[in-house]
Specification:
Blueprint lengths: L7 E6 L4 E6 L3 E6 L5 E6 L6 E4 L5 E5 L4 E5 L24 H4 L2 E6 L5 E6 L4 E5 L5 E6 L3 E6 L5 E6 L3 E7 L7 E8 L6 E5 L5 E7 L7 E7 L4 E6 L8 E6 L5 E6 L9 E6 L5 E6 L9 E4 L4 E5 L5 E6 L4 E7 L4 E7 L4 E6 L3 E6 L5 E6 L5 E6 L5 E6 L5 E4 L4 E5 L8 E6 L5 E6 L3 E6 L7 H11 L7 H7 L8
Antiparallel strand pairs: 1-2, 2-3, 3-4, 5-6, 6-7, 8-9, 9-10, 11-38, 12-13, 13-14, 14-15, 16-17, 17-18, 18-19, 20-21, 21-22, 22-23, 24-25, 25-26, 26-27, 28-29, 29-30, 30-31, 32-33, 33-34, 34-35, 36-37, 37-38
Length: 481
């Protein structure tokens, strides 16, 4: 096979049929060894010093002069290469390459997610391999928010230009993701989405927040992709910023926020069947604007706010705030953890905070990333949170350890606004303003406390003492004579 125009410096055999080669000619290529066919070419942008196969055998580490990059074997192309994470040794920038020399060798640890790299100057660097690559991806429109059907078979995506897309999720189909319905309205603006408990309906809010400050609010039949109820958003004192189904599933709730912080915000509970407001709260009653809503039960909501930098526990029966949680910075998303009865929010300074819902005691403050966190979601087992911000790619947080365990690399700043866990908790979905949808595997391998206890219970060995041992040490019950 005439593989490259210069020296081959890296070679990996994936199996008996596929090989990957790297070269000084600035390319990395995937080959069919039986036919000699070139399957894919990745333009590396630099000469290749070597190649390493990832421990999971689904991606390749490309060693360049100073940079280490990772690309998925299944899609070794220039498009997927934007997911490559550029790693530099600590305190060293590309312009300092002459000080340490280029990469000359590398190796992966066998029992840990660690890579060692050697350099021309004699320096050795060690890396933790936490970059994740997408399980699947598809190009769509331009998205700002997403919601996953409770059974994981459908996805609702709101676009930046006033449409709602409903996608079918089928891993066994050739396309994996397929658009089923495209719902339109008269307001060309970004949207907000939420599924009800059985996935039969979607609440869809559309808000031209920064320009006309107009809003629209609908309930959609998820199966047929048609609007079944329209709500008069002129009842709100300002622009709709948050929507959710109430716990009883017969009502929806919407919250508003004034872009200029002049009118504060308000909260309206609507009857789905009639389309009419049931109750409205504003001013001192809710103590702030409403940037997001988390539903606890039929009478309690969590409201995040930006102006007064706090989250509130609100009673919809009494119309009173029962608890406040000081975020110290603006909050644009809030989640409720029912099993642990905790509150999660991401703030505008890159800090994620977890509180006890009853006492407002801070359970954890996690430094995730610099920048404004716009969206978040909690895994079904409450072990993880995923956050999206304007500072970097979406991050997966282990809430038990308070650490960031994965960065979903490949996004430019201020690009990802929609994140959601799959209902089985095994993957994360993200959607960006460039119109690309990705599904990511969760790679954190640490067992939770519950999983450890279950493992011990299932694998424990209980020694049964003999009659002589029982008699000697008086272990009850003694054997019958």
């Amino acid at each position: 096979i005439e593989a490259h125009n210069n020296a081959i410096t890296g070679l990996i055999l994936i199996d008996d049929h596929v090989a990957i080669t790297g070269s000084f000619d600035y390319t990395v290529k995937r080959w069919n060894l039986e036919t000699g066919e070139l399957l894919e070419t990745l333009t590396n942008g630099d000469s290749t010093a070597g190649l390493l196969l990832s421990p999971t055998r689904d991606s390749v580490y490309i060693l360049r002069s100073l940079i280490i990059r990772e690309s998925p074997i299944s899609d070794l192309s220039d498009e997927q290469d934007r997911f490559s994470r550029e790693w530099y040794p600590a305190d060293v920038q590309p312009e300092n390459v002459s000080e340490i020399g280029t990469i000359t060798t590398a190796a992966l640890a066998q029992d840990a997610p660690v890579m060692l790299t050697g350099y021309g100057s004699g320096m050795l660097a060690m890396w933790e391999l936490e970059t994740a690559l997408p399980v699947t991806s598809v190009q769509g429109s331009s998205y700002v928010e997403m919601a996953i059907h409770p059974d994981g078979t459908l996805m609702a995506l709101s676009t930046t230009f006033g449409t709602l897309e409903i996608w079918d999720i089928d891993p066994d189909s050739p396309t994996y993701l397929t658009v089923l319905h495209n719902v339109e309205n008269d307001l060309a603006a970004p949207g907000l989405v939420d599924y009800n408990a059985d996935g039969s309906q979607i609440v869809w809010g559309v808000a031209d927040y920064f320009d006309t400050e107009e809003s629209a609010l609908y309930v959609i039949d998820s199966d047929i992709g048609e609007i079944v109820q329209t709500f008069d958003t002129s009842h709100h004192i300002t622009t709709v910023r948050a929507v959710r189904f109430m716990a009883n599933q017969n009502q929806i709730v919407s919250g508003s926020q004034d872009a200029g912080f002049v009118n504060g915000g308000d909260l309206i509970i609507w009857n789905i069947e009639s389309g009419e407001p049931v109750r409205q709260f504003s001013g001192e009653a809710i103590l702030d604007d409403v940037t997001d809503i988390a539903v606890i039960d039929d009478s309690h909501l969590l409201l995040s706010g930006a102006y007064f930098e706090r989250v509130r526990l609100f009673n919809t029966v009494t119309g009173n705030v029962e608890q406040t949680f000081d975020a110290a910075h603006s909050s644009f998303g809030v989640q409720y953890l029912p099993q642990s009865r905790r509150v999660f929010t991401g703030t505008s300074n890159g800090i994620a905070i977890v509180w006890d819902v009853q006492t407002a005691e801070t359970h954890a403050r996690i430094e995730v990333q610099n920048g404004w966190m716009y969206d978040s979601d909690i895994s079904p087992d409450e072990r993880y949170a995923v956050v999206a911000s304007d500072a970097q790619s979406p991050a997966l947080i282990n809430l038990e350890t308070g650490t960031t365990v994965q960065i979903y690399a490949g996004y430019s700043a201020d690009n990802v606004w929609g994140v959601a866990f799959s209902p089985d908790g095994q993957s994360v979905w993200t959607a960006d303003m460039a119109g690309t949808i990705y599904q990511w595997a969760i790679e954190d391998k640490q067992l939770s406390a519950v999983e450890l206890i279950n493992w011990i219970t299932e694998n424990r060995y209980i020694h049964q003492p003999t009659c002589d041992v029982r008699k000697t040490y008086n272990i009850q019950p003694l054997c019958d004579e």
